[in-house]
Amino acid sequence: MTTPTPRTPVPVHSPREAPSPVHSPREAPPSPASSTPGGVGSSPRRPDGTLKVTGEFAYSSDMWMDDMLWGATLRSPHPHARIRGIDVTGAVRMPGVHAVLTHEDVPGEKRYGLEYRDQPVLAFGKVRYRGEPVAIVAADHPETARRALDRVRVDYEVLEPVSDPVRAAFDPDCPLVHEAGEDLPPAHPAHHRSGNRVRYQPVRTGAFADGATAAEVRALADVVVTGEYQVGMQDQAFLGPESGLAVPAEDGGVDLHIATQWLHVDQSQIAPCLGLPPEKVRLTLAGVGGAFGAREDMSMQVHACMLALRTGRPVKIVYNREESFHGHVHRHPARLRYEHGATRDGRLVYATAEIVLDGGAYASTTAAVVGVASSLGLGPYEIPHARVDAYGVYTTNPPCGAMRGFGAVQACFCYESQLDRLAAELGLHPVELRIRNAMSEGSRTATGQRVDMPLPMADMLRRAREMPMPPERAAAGPVDVRALPGGVANTSRGEGVRRGVGYGVGLKNLCFSEGFDDYSTARVRLEVVGGEPAVQVHTAAAEVGQGLVTIKGQIARTELGVERVTVLPSDTRVGSAGSSSASRQSYMTGGAVRAACLAVRARVFELVRAAGLVGDDHPDELLGLAGGKVVSGARGVLVSLADLLGASAVEETREFRHRATEMLDPTTGQGASHTQFGMCVHRAVVDVDVDLGLVKVVALDAVQDVGRVLHPQQLAGQIQGGSAQGLGLALMEEIQVSGSVIRNPSFTDYLIPTILDVPPMRIEVLEHPDPHAPYGLRGAGEPPTLSSTPAIVAAVRAATGRPLSRIPVRPEDIVGIERD
Amino acid sequence: MPAQTLTATLHVNGREHALPDLDPRTTLLDALRESLGLTGTKKGCGLGHCGACTVLADGRRILSCMALAALYEGREITTIEGLAPEGGAARPHPLQQAFVERDAFQCGYCTPGQIMSAAGLIDEGRTGSPEEIREFMSGNLCRCGAYANIVAAVADVARTPLVPGAREPEQGRS
Ligand code: FES
Ligand code: FES
């Protein structure tokens, strides 16, 4: 069997320094740059960068084998229907068609899932969302496969969709999406699953923990603000649609080349469905065209493997954009109700939140999303009395799961909107109110978890407020239409343009939470190649664009003092690295690479001692590695690694775990459930054309604490990218669903921010190290996604005076046209 | 399979490729990717909305997903693989180099389209200011949000003055 277009291992050679795009304030502790060029704290080039800019980098959709077949998926046209029968005979008879498979052909387990195995590989009994896979085809040409799908006859009995998440959560007469017993695996007892509820999580502190009613607690406050909010369904909209290539192997197993966020969790779901032991399902990471959470769940993984095993030929499946909108989970849309009470001098007294998250047809990560929304639902504020009730429900809407900042994004928009309302009510500057109630190191969250790492929130808010403002709009003179909201499409002369400023701050848990035994594995090998020491780093971690391949190389250089590092392709031949999600890979896989490097170092020092290079007169000599040599603190260079190792290699594999976390108490929601906290503050400046309902974000500036900067340039990219996705949620991005049907599954109608929508950003990065984390670092990818949305909406409110309690904000919300 | 196929000859990156049995409905993008194995050009949407499939036809940027391959017979097509005169990773084009140096991408999926679009843009002389670069690069989506660095990379190659006071120079310059 030939192998598919190989992904070249990415060699990391003599990186050159890039200019740092990050403004580190003078007071921040300096980032101690590694002594090895290209180490931690510098900005070496991405090792896969040249391949990406020359078109040679092989994304999953670029995989090719000469004898391969093309797979295609038949999807349900109904959001909710009973399947009475499936007839594939017409499709099977078509020339060029090699296999047509349905649920009857699934060799093993018929369902899979990240938390609950509730999602059928191919639908049986019922379909629960529009676009659910029902049958799969392999043919010698993609068009043939597509036409064969038209010949599969499915007899549906159409059922009423369950489209309203609030009804699904609270109405006992609401039809069930999953009939109990029949098709649901047992739930975690602490999740309170019942009816259509996947999870319910309450949180109670202060008087609420003692059973006080809302009215009793309300009496403690001078000022009360309430708000009802809605968050639309956001799509990750990664630019490279789902794709993969499955290759049958001679041992009866299968090799899958796939764009995913977590190879091993895919493997652990695929193998049982195929009825194969895990070691016969081998995965290799193919090039990933963006992820943002959407690739944490599987899409066509099992389908491609089933078709490959059935036909004995490699099978490639590539989704098109419309199919991609139906082929992955989205951000949970939410309905939320908040109430905040404060004293006249602006101290928060109490807060309550009711949060309903629409999980759609299958659980995916809904339980974890509820865990985040409940524990962080009130944000980074000191609040004596707190009550949160968070629900995640099944509906027949598109399934929802992970997207950058999950659970925290929805809540952040609301608590920040509430703080602004309260500030207006009290006549305080929104930043001042936030500072008066800001959490800091030593504070406790609503779940009673003590923040045992720096949290310089007040300082960050002050810095954001003090950043220079963009220049005012010219009051007179010629109008540059490009600078107007709507750009060259604007039809006015800017008469109705008003400027507004808004702030947002968010608190995000980083790494996995709630007792999950999370770890990452790294194998590091040191040997001499061509007379020079060289390091190989092997992990199963998914590079999804965040730049983890660069970081792995930097850590190896720093710890081993060797410049030449090769990062091997990620695959399941090494232990799990966990998911490229929850902003966790620098922490976890970075931690694992570091641990493996330290183990290699220790072995090298043993060799030095064994060779008698450390004399009896220097038993405690401090040894180090630098410039490819073993050095002694006292005596300088002892030996070069090339001479010491000769033809032998030193290889070590290590697992790295973060500290243990706790489950939330099922009735009080108390528990130290999170590993680490991250925070970003945004200040947005917008121009709004109040006649046309158009918004231009003029400035979107950010302050973020990342503990320790590993790669200044890539870090800036994460902050810019996360902020841009928050901007999209604020102003334009929404999967419109009515009657459980997606109405806009294309980039024509689902808008993502363009280069004209995202302003240049001023970024200030703080480095207050987290004592629990490798290098003191804090995950950085998600926090900007939380705070940019409320900052922008606050700025639009300031410009328009409209309440704007729904995101994305639509033109009609700005001009004040009622919708029905 | 379609009843009628045709034979077309495409000039791509300075070489001639005969495409026998071409389905007349085949897009230029699919012909490049599937028939010629030039997978550097990406498909993000297939409907003309994302710019990932941008290539040059006689030096002008076009969306190859919206072009029928058969209609491009006799035109000189340049893809990301052929942008650098000497080709390949060893001697990248200045734009390719600038994208790497400015870190003007993350996942890189939009990048071939961004670079081909930038090449067309520089030829069109639309690089007078960062604002102009933005305006004329606005057909190329980047979901990773690398826009600021894309502007900087294009400006580097086009020698666009990054006007003091304009906020653009903040990016990657401090
Ligand atoms: S693939 Fe051609 S514009 Fe998106
Ligand atoms: S780099 Fe990922 S879409 Fe642009």
UniProtKB/TrEMBL annotation, chain A:
It comes from the Bacteria. Residues 54-160 form the Aldehyde oxidase/xanthine dehydrogenase a/b hammerhead domain. SUPFAM superfamilies: CO dehydrogenase molybdoprotein N-domain-like, Molybdenum cofactor-binding domain. Residues 1-52 are annotated as: Disordered. GO terms for molecular function: iron ion binding; oxidoreductase activity. InterPro entries: Ald_Oxase/Xan_DH_a/b, Ald_Oxase/Xan_DH_a/b_sf, Ald_Oxase/xanthine_DH-like, AldOxase/xan_DH_MoCoBD1, AldOxase/xan_DH_MoCoBD2, AldOxase/xan_DH_Mopterin-bd_sf, Xanthine_dehydrogenase_dsu. This is Xanthine dehydrogenase subunit D. It comes from Marinitenerispora sediminis.
Automatic annotation (TrEMBL), chain B:
The keyword Iron-sulfur applies. Residues 6-83 form the 2Fe-2S ferredoxin-type domain. Keywords: 2Fe-2S, Iron, Iron-sulfur, Metal-binding, Oxidoreductase. One of its GO terms (molecular function) is oxidoreductase activity, acting on the aldehyde or oxo group of donors. Pathway: Alkaloid degradation; nicotine degradation. It holds the Pfam family Fer2_2. The keyword Iron-sulfur applies. This is (2Fe-2S)-binding protein. InterPro entries: 2Fe-2S-bd, 2Fe-2S-bd_dom_sf, 2Fe-2S_ferredoxin-like_sf, 2Fe-2S_ferredoxin-type, 2Fe2S_fd_BS, Aldehyde_Oxdr_Iron-Sulfur, Beta-grasp_dom_sf.
